[in-house]
Amino acid sequence: MKKLSFLVAGVAGVLAASAVQAGTLDDVKAKGFVQCGVSQGLPGFSNADDAGNWTGIDVDLCRGVAAAVFGDASKVKYTPLSSKQRFTALSSGEIDVLSRNTTWTMTRDTQLGLNFAGVNYYDGQGFLVPTKLGVKSALEMDGANVCSQTGTTTELNVTDFFRENGMKFNLVAFEEADAVVAAYDSGRCDVYTTDRSGLAAQRTKLANPDAHMVLPEIISKEPLGPVVRQGDDQWFNIVRWTLNAMINAEEMGVTSANAKSMANDNNPSIKRLLGTEGTFGAELGLSNDWALNIISQVGNYAESYEAHVGPNTPLKLGRGVNALWSQGGILYAPPVR
Amino acid sequence: MSINSNNLSAFINDSRVRNIGFQVLIISALVFSVWWLMDNTLTNLENRGKSLGFGFLVQTAGFEISDTLGTWLFDYEVGVSSYTDIFFIGITNTLLIAVLGIILASIIGFTVGIMRLSNNFILKYFATVYVEVIRNVPLLLQLFFWYFAVLGVLPDARSQLQVFGGLGGLNITGLYLPAPVFQTGFGLVFLAFSVSVIASIIVAHISKKKQDETGQGFKLVLIIPALIISVTGIAYVIMGGPLDWTFPEFKNTGPIFKRGFQSDAGMVLVPEMLAVLLALTLYTAGFIAEIVRAGIVAVSRGQTEASYSVGLRPGVTLRLIVIPQAMRIIIPPLTSQYLNLTKNSSLAVAIAYPELVSIFAGTALNQVGKEIEMIFMVMSTYLVISLITSFFMNWFNARVKIVER
Asked: What beta strand segments (E) does A91-239 contain?
């Protein structure tokens, strides 16, 4: 077996040969931008408009990392990836950070050579069905044709759900999210399953969004978050603390509008966050105003949420569990100290 | 001094020394590149905390796969079947498309190719338009066209179009057909069938020999079907008819998701498979048609005229004079088309047909994360399939090529 492995390595070596790298931070600084892996178009999370500008909460995280590293949130280049391609793109070094509504699971943490830097959206898998079928619960779905995207935890969760409840189903799994939407819209499947945030986003692409409803069942825990390669702790810390800075900023009431003036606030924890006290940025290998740059250019977590997925957007997603811990949710960032 | 330099220049100018020298250089360069690639890969994998190994092949897979020949053949069951099963299911589904596609594309391709040379105005222009349209639209678009535009407008999951006089049904979830159920003893019937086919081949050989000697062969058109039907039929009757059929069952009542065709009766050809088969067959047939036309046109006009002048009719001329000579021009490029069709079947991943690339290098790879091992397995599989196809076609080519006397 060892010999065979060796042979395999030889043939496939070309794939990896181009990706010998030093620290990711040095690489990023040298090339002048952060290469960020995003989805191929999921409104609210990462979606490109007609002019090719990317927006969404996953995109904001990448912009936050760029603001922390360069002091300029626009120094990001995006690589749209299918769910199948995403981990390979990250581990081969094609992208520096993967911010693509990716679920944190144990397998992915331990077997793929990757690390999750935190959770920027707590999600759960749900089902979308045409209202005209009159279905009220996911437990009535015995015998259904279910559409999903390949290479995701979605396929595993839905399989588990049907097995647990002793129901049969037929899974039709497409590579591209748009193909899933088209197949569901044409009636190939009775049910569309993915994360509930994804359902809310993809529903806006259907011919008649109001003729479909999301069933009440949530069949899985889907903590979505940014991912980096294992073995580069400095870069891992930068991505993790970019997210933490945005959450802490919301908790302290620091927004993009008042960040600059609050840097001289009397509150020491705000001073530490915004870099007027201590050397927290330098410890990350960045400048001390790293978090100030993130918040003034990208905004805090609440600003990002309200702008892209909140009740005033087409997705109409309430904060729910994604509210701060102090407001009944489970968002809780460790303190800057 | 001068003697030495003379010896040296004689040595490096010696053609044998040069030949060996260059060989040694090339081999060391090759060995070095292979070593470098392997070393680089292993180092990089180690840096990323990943290891190589095929241990994942015995892990069980936790996801559902839509009903296809592969899942039926390997009795796929979530939580029981391993990733090795997934690998073979993928290969089965790829081969199914490849084999059916090659047969159908050849039939359509030969027909259209001959139609393009027809004197009938309508046939000729229909064939021309077909070839030009099919060849000039990208295959992936044709795949989407068949899947979303054509099959997408079929009746919904809870209604049906009856086909084959009510024996089968068609809706957006697939084409439902009667399915054979093999009872014990069917193996012997199949054995009898195989024996009769082998016997037919032997009879054909004897007939050919007799025809070469006496100019009069057996009436094979009658003998061979009679042989196969009688032997198989007798075995079937003796074994007590070990073959049952289940028919598609359509329900209009009950829970909403239980209405429509029932999953446990008859068999289903999923629309993903139909779309892949249609797209690949029609696309490849366009190219085969041109190859056939070129092959026929390349046979000298004098052959046809000579044939007519000895009184052979056009159909017979085409079958006995032109096509045999055209074959030896057609076969080599035809082989390439067969290989293309097989490899193009991997595009099926776009429309959810569970073939090798889709379920093994796709879904399974994402669950296990062993990119290098799995892509290597998939590449080797395509290589083996292609080599077998080439081998067979080369053998066939050797049979039909011109025999020098």
From this structure: 97-103, 114-116, 121-123, 125-130, 144-149, 169-174, 191-195, 212-214, 222-229
Residue B193 falls inside a structural domain: no
Give helix A177-186 / helix A196-203 axis angle, nearest 10°. Answer: 70
Interface A-B: count of C-beta contacts within 8 A: 179
Per CB-CB distance under 8 Å, the chain A contacts of B373 are 5, 8
- Which two structure tokens, joined as six digits, stand for B269? 């050809």
Strands A191-195 and A144-149: parallel
Chain A 116-145, CB below 8 Å of chain B: which residues?
133-135, 140-145
Domain that holds residue B319: 85-154+270-400
Q: Which of 152-211 (A) contact B at CB < 8 A?
A: 152, 155-156, 158-160, 162-163, 168-176, 179, 182-183, 186-188, 190
Please report residues of A whose CB lies closer than 8 A to that of B350.
174-176, 179
**Cross-chain CB nearest to A151 (options B43, B44, B363):** B363
Contact list in A for residue B45 (CB cut-off 8 A) is 9, 16
Q: Give the integer Cα–Cα distance in Å for B343 and B98.
A: 8
User: Does the residue B320 lie in any domain?
Assistant: yes
Q: Do B256 and A134 make contact, defined as CB atoms within 8 angstroms?
A: yes
Alpha helices in chain A (DSSP H): 2-17, 24-31, 57-70, 86-91, 106-111, 153-164, 177-186, 196-203, 233-252, 259-262, 268-274, 280-284, 290-297, 301-308
Query: Does B42 sit within 8 Å of A172, measured CB to CB?
Result: no
The contacts of residue B315 (CB under 8 Å, 6+ apart) are none
Which residue of B34, B66, B369 is in closest CB contact with A112?
B369
CB-CB neighbors (< 8 A) of B363 in chain A: 84, 150-151, 155, 173
In CATH terms, the superfamily for domain A125-220 is Periplasmic binding protein-like II (3.40.190.10)
Tens of pLDDT, residue by residue, chain B (405 residues): 455 667 788 887 888 888 888 899 999 999 999 999 988 888 888 877 777 888 888 888 888 888 888 888 888 888 888 999 999 999 999 999 999 999 999 999 999 999 998 889 999 999 999 999 999 999 999 999 999 988 888 888 888 888 887 788 888 888 888 888 887 778 888 888 899 899 988 988 888 888 888 877 777 778 888 888 888 888 888 887 777 888 888 888 878 888 888 877 788 889 999 999 999 999 999 999 999 999 999 998 899 999 999 999 988 898 888 888 898 889 999 999 999 999 999 999 889 899 999 889 888 888 888 888 999 999 999 999 999 999 999 998 888 777 666
Same topology, domains A23-122+223-313 and A125-220? Answer is: yes
> If you ran DSSP here, which 8-state letter would residue A286 be given?
S
Average pLDDT over residues A213-224: 89
Among all residues of chain A, which has the CA nearest to that of B363? A151
Tokens of B40: 């680089």
Contact A13 B37 (CB under 8 A): yes
CATH number for the domain whose boundaries are A23-122+223-313: 3.40.190.10
Q: What ipTM describes this predicted complex?
A: 0.76
CATH for B390: 1.10.3720.10
Q: Nearest by CB to B258, which of A12, A142, A156?
A: A142
Quick check: is B95 in a domain? yes
pLDDT number for residue A240: 96
Minimal Cα–Cα distance from A290 to chain B, Å? 28
Strand partners, B243: B182
Taking CB atoms and an 8 Å limit, are A84 and B49 in contact across chains?
Answer: no
**Residue ranges per domain, chain A?**
23-122+223-313, 125-220
List, as ranges, residues 1-30 from A with C-beta within 8 Å of B. Answer: 1, 4-6, 8-17, 19-20
